[in-house]
Amino acid sequence: MNNNKKILSVEDLVIKFRLRGNILTAIRGVNLDIFEGESLAIVGESGSGKSVFTKSFMGLLDKNGWIDSGNIIYKNNNLAKFSTEDQWLKIRGKEIAMVFQDPMTALNPLKTIGKQVKESVELHQGLKGKDAKDQVIRILEDVGISHPEKRYNQYAHEFSGGMRQRVVIAIAIACRPNILICDEPTTALDVTIQAQILKLLKDLKRKYSLTTIYITHDLGVVANVADRIAVMYAGDIIEVGLSEEVFYNPQHPYTWALLSSLPQLGTKGEPLYSIKGTPPNLFNKIKGDAFAPRNPKALEIDFIEKPPYFEITPTHKVKTWLLDPRAPKVEPPKSIKNMGRGKL
Amino acid sequence: MKSKEVLLDIRNLEVQFQMGRKNIFTAVDDVSFQIYKGETFGLVGESGSGKTTIGRAIIRINEVSHGEIIFDGKKISGKISRDLDKEVTKNIQMIFQDPMASLNERAKVDYIVSEGLYNLKNYTSEEERKEKVANALLDVGLLPEFASRFPHEFSGGQRQRIGIARALIMEPKFIIADEPISALDVSIRAQVLNLLLELQKKKNFTYLFIAHDLSIVRYIADRVAVIHKGKIVELAETEQLFTNPIHPYTKSLLSAIPYPDPIKEKNKKILVYKPNLIEKSEENWVEIEQGHFVLINE
């Protein structure tokens, strides 16, 4: 984080979905500030709401979903109150762009790669004809595609997975956004390619002074890219802090459990720490701390009242009753203490 | 590793695919390795490296174009007798990657888990079959009542348990686990890994664990082979391989593993493997220390 200027502020956001007549609360009152130029990672398991959360910044919620209450403030606009597609078209792509997870399905198989990047150049940079084409070739070069003139006229099936992801990134960058959301940008890729794509995203962030938001479940990726981490569980951010704070001094029992279940921390021949049970059903109203039923050391109050944020440092905030001065002292699991500060 | 008794012996295995009319693609190229009884053998490679094809050749889904596969002292590749085929089906089982795609949505768990039994008819009565299903479900931490449900009623982790129960019920000796946890969530992965290890202890299984995620392989495997473009480039005991990698491809693969540690990640150097520099020379399979083999160009 280079400065403390907020670029986007989320306040008490609640997002609901209607599914077969039932109402599901996917995001349960989330507060989060995103700062200009930072790289934030939102970590969570599938169903935790991390994708829904960021999709709401771009007006991309599925038709059966809506923002029930709360605000998303971006440049004096409250995105949560947007109601027409025209309003969104000024934000989507131009201001906030997204790199999607699966490069195999994000591209149009019937259009050449050049055309697909050009669309976004024409729409967002107002260039036409040869200027637009030259710009596309420059962008393709920027994302590390060699022989861009030749590649311009090729189709998605002629590209490997890693190269396709570069094209998807090129399309997002061509919009000249301020914020780039990367939704599991490397999950579908091999480790060596993953490392290259992460490096590319970091280089582009610097070159175009982007604010980046990564959505991922892979803590290795998080450690690589993030300045700051928000841990999401059952539709709420339960711990947020600088990358070092969350990895080396985690405070929420869910963060503990997530870190200690990593095979990197396991000892051969001994069972890995595993979280019992499954995440709560979001169709039901959640009382207290959503993680309590899976937390063997849960306190009584965890089942009754939702914990507020407790501040550990000005940058590190955690929602757990363990940090209340009246709470008993509970030590984090041993395996986590072994981790960190480059020792792993 | 419990013993040095060989359970599976793969000798000069080659698997080819016809691509179009004239092109032949060699997915697995002169691969040889042995798996010992009771061990977990990790096979690591990137997509397209041929790791899954090897697994599929062992259970006779992919045809072997050259070389042979010996299981428990008997050749099981190529043409074999019907009795031996049945024996192979019983003794070698597979666990698939994506539990959302590998279960028949229209069948109840009871049928899914007993399908192998139906095929081989190795039960004497309906009661015996039901009992076997109930035991298999209990073994993987599910309730016997679940037999009457459909796959869509289960979460990803539970579905993978059903996939494991379906393999267990055959009482196999050897299980091929093809990326069994990569489609699962972080918190569920540990549960399924623990289950696989617990079952191995209890039933003395031998595993071939196919994966692209090296950190998981390091935790679970006794020995590891690294495969690149259809060839095994390095094979060693797990810790040997991780602490002393020799082949440049192994080194590049290890350098790319993401670690959940920001300081380490920010200082990491990725080694890029450039195969074309050395491709043309002769390659030799050399044992550089005990049990540590490398494909070396000379």
Give an overview of the whole structure.
The complex is a heterodimer of chains A (344) and B (298). Chain A is an alpha/beta fold and 344 residues long. Chain A has two domains: 6-226, P-loop containing nucleotide triphosphate hydrolases (Rossmann fold, 3-Layer(aba) Sandwich), CATH 3.40.50.300; 232-338, no CATH class. Chain A is built from twelve helices and twelve strands. Chain A has helices at residues 50-55, 85-91, 103-106, 113-125, 129-142, 148-152, 161-174, 191-207, 219-225, 243-248, 253-260, 334-338; strands at residues 6-19, 22-35, 39-43, 65-74, 77-78, 96-99, 179-183, 211-216, 228-233, 236-242, 310-313, 316-318. In chain A, the strands form two sheets. Chain A has an eight-stranded mixed beta sheet. A four-stranded antiparallel beta sheet of chain A has the order 2-1-4-5, with no helix packed on it. In chain A, helix 4 runs parallel beside helix 7 and helix 5 (129-142) packs across helix 7. In chain B, helix 6 (186-203) links the parallel strand 7 (174-178) and strand 8. In chain B, helix 3 crosses helix 4 and helix 5 (156-168) packs parallel to helix 6. Helix content of chain B is 34%, strand content 28%. Chain B is globular, with a radius of gyration of 20 Å. In chain B, the strands form two sheets. Chain B has an eight-stranded mixed beta sheet with strand order 6-7-8-3-9-10-12-11, with helices on both faces. With 298 residues, chain B is α/β, with parallel strands linked by helices. Chain B has a single domain (6-297), classed as 3-Layer(aba) Sandwich (Rossmann fold). Chain B is built from ten helices and twelve strands. Chain B has helices spanning 51-58, 82-91, 109-120, 126-139, 156-168, 186-203, 214-220, 238-243, 248-255, 262-266; strands at 6-19, 23-36, 40-44, 66-71, 74-75, 92-95, 174-178, 206-211, 223-228, 231-237, 283-289, 292-297. The chains are: A alpha/beta (344), B alpha/beta (298). The A-B interface holds A 45-46, 161, 190-196, 199, 217-224, 226, 243-244, 247, 257-259, 261-266, 268, 271-275, 278, 339-344 and B 46-47, 155-157, 185-191, 193-194, 197-198, 212-216, 218-220, 238, 252-253, 255-268, 270, 272-273.
